Amino acid sequence: MLTSLARVQSARSGLSAANKALGATRSYATPAADGRVPTFHPSRVPPYAELLSNLAVVRAQLNRPLTLSEKILYSHLRNAEQDLADVGSDPSAIRGKKYLKLKIDRLAMQDASAQMALLQFMTCGLPRTAIPSSVHCDHLIQAFEGAEADLKRSIASNQEVFAFLESASKKYGIEFWGPGSGIIHQIVLENYAAPGLLMLGTDSHTPNASGLGCLAIGVGGADAVDAMTNTPWELMAPKVLGVHLTGELNPWCTPKDVILHLAGKLTVRGGTGKIVEYSGPGLHTLPATGLATMSNMGAEVGATTSAFPFTPAMAAYLEATGRGEVARAAEGAAARGLLAADKEAEYDERIEINLSDLEPCLNGPFTPDLSTPLSQFVAKAKSDARDHPIELSAALIGSCTNSSYADMARCASLAQQARDRGMKVKSSFDVTPGSEQVRATVERDGIQQVLTDVGARVLANACGPCIGQWNRKELQGEDNVILTSFNRNFRGRNDGNAKTWNLLASPEIVTAMAFAGRLDFNPMTDSLTGPDGKPFKFEPPKSDVLPSKGFSQGNIDYLPTPMPEPQPDAEILISPTSARLEPLEPFSSPFAETAAMGKYELPSMRCLLRIKGKCTTDHISAAGPWLKYKGHLSNLAENTLIGATNDEFDAVNVAQDFATGQKDTIPGVAKAYKARQQPWMMVADHNYGEGSAREHAALQPRFYGCNLIVARSIARIAETNLRKQGVLTLLFENEDDYLKIASGDLVETINLTDLIKPGGDIKTQVKLRVTKFAEDGETVKETFELPTKHSLSSAHLDWIRAGSALNLIKEQAAASSGSGSGSASISGAFAGAAKSAASKLASLGGARGYATSAKAPTGGSRNPNDPNYIPPAADARTEAIKKIVYPPAPSSAKDRAARSATSASAVLPFPAEVSEEVHSTITRAWLLFQRTQREALEERLNKKHARLREALEDLRLEDPRLFAAATYRVAPNKRSPAEQRKLVQLGLVSLPGAAARPDAPTGAEARRLAKAVAGGARLEGLFPREWRIPTQTPSRTVWPSHQSNEA
Fold first, then answer.
1. What is the pTM of this model?
2. Do residue 506 and residue 430 come from a single domain?
3. Of the chain's two ends, which shows fewer C-beta atoms within 10 Å, N or C?
4. Number of domains composing the chain
5. Beta strand pairing status for 500-504 and 480-484?
6. Which NCBIfam families does the entry mention (predicted)?
7. Residue 877 falls within a domain, yes or no?
8. Do 503 and 626 have their domain in common?
9. Active site residues
10. Cα angle at 392 between 386 and 397, to 5 degrees?
11. CA nearest neighbour of 237 among 91, 344, 340
12. How are beta strands 706-711 and 680-684 bridged, if at all?
């Protein structure tokens, strides 16, 4: 028992809590000579032979020089010859005009979005994912005290989510990176990204991986399901924005400053529908991780992704991260023309940047495209024109944007200079390593020690404050300024305080300014005063780009088995009473009642609201404390559009119910509409849905009954996500028409049938009929029509017609299964992958492989409660009996009539005179089964309780003091005697009648110490007061009484 208690208090216990809950075990290859555990697998080498073969077809079809992004994209076409037929050599005939049907090489999912993606995938009835996939636990870890405490607390509070993700990964053959392993984008860069690869990720900053020469694109969960089910992934052929780099950065400038400068030029909409493709001699002066930083923040200008030609720096990084085989294969592909643009390739736009002319930038506040050179910012901060506090309240470095070894090492070079003079930071200073590999390496090389010596706090290897997972208590509701090396700075994003200014900068500038604690300090030119009273001026930062001793892998328990075999018998862990996870119910098609008549007009809708100005995914589906509900749509929907501004009332999160005239929150009115079965639509401003790739921003409005969004413009990922959930998206043909639709207006489609019916004309532009009413809500004031435009493809129309893309995939999977081809296609795809892997293994000299040969699918789960359960046989009577046992709630008069006419004797294959007996037998059998299950559960719990009581008694006899502490009843928000004594010792609390200690900590330091005492290794209340046996007695009302069909 003492050993168990000690284990609870240990800082890190190898496998994650979710791993332990599932009884996972690990095995590894023999470490290499350099001490690294080999992680290379042939699946991580792009299919260069196939891509080069496809590229030859593309060249023959287009007959013109190609950009790099075109080479990678078009070589991934499912059928290049068919898709590019009759396009010709004019780039404008395909860019921005033609949808590409692409084959994806790899998929990565982070824990917040993977929940919904996997819940959707589970409904498809497939035994495994069709492509190599991975899940990364990084978004649900909240920063508060420091790495160890934060990680332990987050694992405990999110254990059911992590257990669900790990169990689903085990079932479907997905690589699982547990909490603490690192940020998804850094792990992908270290393990999966490769030149020429085409990959998707369920996060808007997935393009981070493009820094290694691939095309990595952020998508929603529904797009991830496309990839996992081997469905062709559609993308409007992007335009190509060329950025030509010359010169070389000065010592204070970094690749982060390149993208901050470019964001100022392009604005948050300048890259929409485009790939930013870099070229020029200046590119070869930048490290691979710096290119990743630039492509990461390409998302902030709306770019689809970024593209970089293969450089020696990429090869060096691949070698350093144990992927020499990938580097050598990429060199061969580059020599054959795949990994660089052709000379004379044509770009839609071109921007020239001389790196020698750049200086560090600060971008913000509240938008990542408001770029100001450091010298200008500091000059304004020193003047009366300053409109922000002069003090720096917090400095934060790391996140997926700047958490590489080179970033940490350069910051440490500045901290070393200050430490040598006895200086410490003047503001709070938090450091977030990007991965366990980076953390272990900077710890080994002394970099972490240097940073902590000057006052830094090292957080967990996770997203933390960058995405709002920052439990910041200070300065809430007060104006303050923070400096970060993050990628986004929307209002309230980081700490939930709308008055916090977040200025984006390079980690080096953030670090240097933390020592000043003020914003009127320019580390390139200004001096600080050291403890000795003498001036101190920073020298420019410098460090090695890659660790001279190689990377340390740290805790190898985080490493998953590459390409694991699926375990079809694994149970997916979802509690039926969970508030965090909820199996999905399919959305119905809005055309279900009219499609049979050939009519495909949306039902008459009311306008919920007209959104004013910026409306990001943070406004539509907030993160922060809401992240815990990412797998539970009903609960998460409570935050729908709570950050949106209603143009008519000029107020945030306000809407008016047209029927009652009452004002309420936006989700409050949306719920009322859903309860009344009132379809609705809304009007949006420019770039609706910019920001992250979270599909919840599409799921939530659809869940409440939204059928249509009309906007001035819509961000690419948001538009795709909405269409995948069955929401029609249109754009105003005349942007001024935005003001012509108001809340409560009746909106109808006029000619949507011509567009959306099977075989409809894709060129049809939909018209809307708008009806406005007087104050009584009934008298018609006016009716008029508005023209719109769209970029819908035939696949998008199929999704909307079916009610969602998932409905369509499920129908297609069912059809394939019925024809006997579904399983074969999946097995065939993996058989091909295995064959390819074997050939690659042979070419690499027989390197060790991990995955065994694929097994034939054995069908779905045998547990009827599993969402992936497949009935043993198709029998029409099965559904009829199920409806008797669990009668669905009738939704119409027709349903009620049908239900009343259903009886046991009508569906049971027995004579009427014995049907009552059969019905009674089924009832008794079900109740007996429930009682048996309940008794078995009670017996198991009694055994566990007996063992626990025995352990407690053993502890009482062995160590009465520890037993007393462990069984002490104390509420979590109260102090135990031990904690009270500790607070007195620290001087934080005075005894009655005693004077306060003169050296007692005050202010923020006192609050920090008090929290550390209260949240430390508390034993009090460790054991529960009682152990109740959970029972669930089924109600007899679920079984309808017997009804004879005799007259």
1. 0.70
2. yes
3. C
4. 4
5. parallel
6. aconitase_mito, PRK07229.1
7. no
8. no
9. 138-139, 203, 488, 692, 694
10. 125
11. 91
12. parallel
